[in-house]
Amino acid sequence: MGWKGRRADWIALACLHGGVFTRAQWTSFLGCHHEKVGRAVRKLVAQGVAVEEKPPGINGIGRICRIHGRRIYKALGLGDHRRRRITSPAVMMRRLLGLDYVLEHPRLPWLPTEADRVAAFEALGIERRLLPRRVYRGALGGLRRFFPLGLPIALDAERAVFVYAEPGHETATALRSWGAKHGDLWKALWDLGLKIEVVAVARRWKEYGRTSRVLGNWARYPRPSEIDEETRRELARIEQAILGGDVRFLDGYGGLQATLKRAIALEKRARRRAGRGLTERVDTWMTDRLAGARIWWEA
Asked: Which of 153, 164, 201, 224 is least enclosed by beta carbons within 10 angstroms?
C-alpha cells in the first residue's frame, strides 16, 4: 500500500491498539510537522482504508482517524479485527487513551491482542478461568472474550503492567469493577513471583485525583488479622523453631536460610491472598495530547 518506515510502524501500532488515533498522536510519534501528518491521513482516507471524522459525543480533540481497511488488519495478521468497530464515545476514548500511554512508553513489552495475552499467561501456567472475560450472547450462542476492554498490558520475566483508561466517568465504579475482574489473575502472577504494576490514564485533574485514591487503596498491605489461619500457624511454627533452635524442623525446609526465605514468601503470599497489597506499584498518568477531550455525559 506504499507505507514504509516510521509511517508504517505507526499504522501498525494504531491498529494493534484500538484502530483509532488523532493527528496529534501521529505527529508526536513521528516528531514531524503536523502538515506531513495531515497529508498522510488524507492518503489513508483516499486509499479507502480509513475515515477521519469528528464523532458525535466527543469534543476538544478535533477529528479522529479510524482505520477500518481489512487488508491492513490482515497484513498485520489480525484478520477481521473486531476492535475496528466503535460502539460508544467512551469506547473510543478508552482506545485513544490506551494508545496514548503505549505511545509514551514504547519500550514496554506490550501484548496488543487478545490472543497474545491469553497465550502469554497460559505459558506461565495460568488457567483461562483466572483471566477477566465477558460472554457476548448472540444467535450462534455465547462468544467468550478475554480482556474485553482491550486495554494495554505489558509482560516480561519480572513484572506485568496493566493500564486502565478513564474515559471520563463521574465515579470510580468502572475502575473498581475492572480491578475486581483482574484480581484472580493478579494473585496468580504474584504467586509466581511477578511484580504487578497498575496505571490509570486520566485526562483531567478530577479524574486524576479519584483514580489515584482508588489505586492507593489497592497498594496497601493487609492488617495481620487478614492473614489466613493456615499461614499464621505455619509462620508461628517457623518462628518457634528458629527461636528454639529446632534443627530437625529447619532441616525440613532445607536449613535456616531456606526457612527464612519460606517465611518471607508466606508473608507476601498472605498479603496477596487478602485481596490487598497486590500491586508493587500504582500510578496515575495524565495525558497532554488528549487533555482537552470531553464526552457529552460530562456536560
From this structure: 224
Residue 110, all three cell numbers: 506490550
For residue 225, the model assigns a pLDDT of 46
* Inter-helix orientation angle 256-273/229-244, to 10°: 160
CA distance 142 to 145: 10
pLDDT digits (tens, 9 = 90+) for 174-185: 999 999 899 899
Cβ 283 vs Cβ 197: under 8 Å: yes
Q: What's the CA angle centered on 183, arms 84 and 274, to 5 degrees?
A: 170
- Nearest CA-CA partner of 287 in 207, 212, 204: 204
- Alpha-carbon span 193 to 185, nearest angstrom: 13
Is there a contact between 131 and 124 (Cβ–Cβ < 8 Å)?
Answer: no
Q: Identify residue 150 by its one-letter amino acid code.
A: G
pLDDT in tens, 148-171: 999 999 999 999 999 999 998 888
**Which three cell numbers mark 206?**
478530577
Please state, for a pLDDT cut of 70, what percent of the chain lies above it.
87
Q: What is the C-alpha separation between 20 and 102, in angstroms, rounded?
A: 13
Report, in angstroms and rounded to the nearest whole number, the Rg of the chain calculated over CA atoms: 23
